[in-house]
Structures are given as C-alpha cells and as structure tokens.
Amino acid sequence: MNTIARRSARVAGVVVVIGGLFVGLLWAIQRSLIYLPDTTPVGPADAVMPGARDLTLTTSDGLDLTAWLIPPVADADRDIAVLYASGNGGNRAGRVTIAGELAERGFTVLLLDYRGYGGNPGSPSEEGLAADAVAAVDALEAEGFEPARTIYFGESIGTGVVARLQSTRPPAGVLLRSPFPEFTDVAAHHYPFVPVRLLLRDRFASIDHLRGSDVPVCVVYGTTDTIVPPDLSRRVAAQTGNLVDEVPLEGVGHNDAAMFGPPVADAVERLADRAIR
C-alpha cells in the first residue's frame, strides 16, 4: 500500500471512529434533546386562576404528579372536561391562557404536567408520558368526567400522547394541535444528516393509533410552523380514521399567541358540539 493510500485509510478510519462516537453520544443524550421541561414548581392552582384546584395524579409506576383542575365559567358549564396534554417544553403555567379560553367556553380543564415537569418527580419518556396521561384520565373520572364526556387535547408531542391514549381509553373526541405521523418525521426534518429512524427510542407513532380509530378527531396547525412542518400535520389529517375538522391557521407558527387563543379554543368547542350530544 503506498503512502497516499495508507494516509487515506487512516483518515477514513478516524472519520468512522468520530462518526461512531457522535452517534453513540446522540443515543445517550437523545431524551435531553427531545424533552425540555421547566422543572420549576408552579405553586398552587388558585394563585393562578380563581377557583382552580390542585390535583394529585398517581401513576401506575408509583409517581405522584401535580396538576391543575380549572373550573368552567359558572353560567357556561357544559359538564364536559378537556384533558390538556402539553408539548415537550415549559410546564403548565405556560398553558393558563388557553385553559382560560376553554373555561370561558364552559369546559372544565385538567392541565397535565408530565413527570419531570413543573416540579413533578421522575424523568420523561414515551412510556412515562403514556402512564401520566392514563393517571390524568383516572383523576378526571374520579371528578365525575368519564372519557365519554372528555375531549383529549394534545399539543405538539402531546398529540402523540393522546393519540395513544384514545386507543385504550376512547374519549368523546380528540383535538390534535401541530401533530405529526411519527416523531421520527419531525426529528428527520431537523437533523437530516443523522440516522434518527434507527436511533430514536421514543417514536410517538401517532398515525398508527389514529388510522383505524372511530373517535372524532380535529387537526389544527399553523401554516408557518417551523418546528412541526405543516405538511406533517396535513398527513395526519389525511390518514386519520375519523377526521371531522381540519383547521389551518394561516401565517401562524408553532408557539404563536394564536395557538393558545380563541382560534384553537373555538375548534375545541366545535368538536365538542359535534361529538357530545
């Protein structure tokens, strides 16, 4: 082997080693890249919204999670609950605006914080979030809201949570805000140079749970969303088994104010009017 060939072989070997180390690092830290919790305790519910109550959700693996139960405006009570499953960042304090919009429309709202979020114990994972959501359904049932009188509202990664949840605890309806067919589709969009479909442990394969479902589903997305591209949300709408409404919000991004305001709350109201008689 000549000098140039030997040098090329050494360079190739170094590249392979570095690439392997990079992939190994991504495998090890992937959950810290997916989940971005605000771990700060959020304080009592009634300090945030009058009449709101703190709830304790007990998961199947023994965690006690705190959540907020926000009552409807008194003269507008629909006797319908909304289970709000957040996205991958922040905590429930950042969802008070949308909870207030829903309460004004007569809904009782449970703002769920997953394990590791908002002062809750534990570390987030796909299986963990699934268990947290089941605990939230159990808590709502204890409050008198069976799934048949509950709308599951998933935001971003929370759409994967409620898509799975509706397959085992069917609700009256599901609203998916900024959904994706599978989380690997989002990761592949942002990291096209990484073999994410091989690496990701938490896949949130939403469409697998929705394709054959008969639960009424509404899909809401922003047309300028740069986090979950709107084409992914359109694919969910096209493949969902029982789509009843598709709401594109023109010129709206992933975390714009409109995503936490009247347009989305109005979509929940329409879904409830259609799904619950």
Chain-wise SSE layout:
Blueprint: H1 3-34, E1 36-37, E2 53-58, E3 64-70, E4 80-85, E5 89-90, H2 96-104, E6 107-112, H3 126-142, E7 150-155, H4 157-168, E8 173-177, H5 183-190, H6 196-199, H7 206-210, E9 217-222, H8 230-239, E10 243-249, H9 262-275
Parallel strand pairs: 1-5, 4-6, 4-7, 7-8, 8-9, 9-10
Antiparallel strand pairs: 2-3, 3-6
Helix pairs in contact: 3-4
Task: Provide an overview of this structure.
- Pfam families: Hydrolase_4 (PF12146).
- The protein has 277 residues and is of the alpha/beta class.
- It has 2 domains: 1-34; 38-275, Rossmann fold (3-Layer(aba) Sandwich), CATH 3.40.50.1820.
- The chain contains 9 helices and 10 strands.
- Helix 3 packs across helix 4 (157-168).
- It is globular, with a radius of gyration of 21 Å.
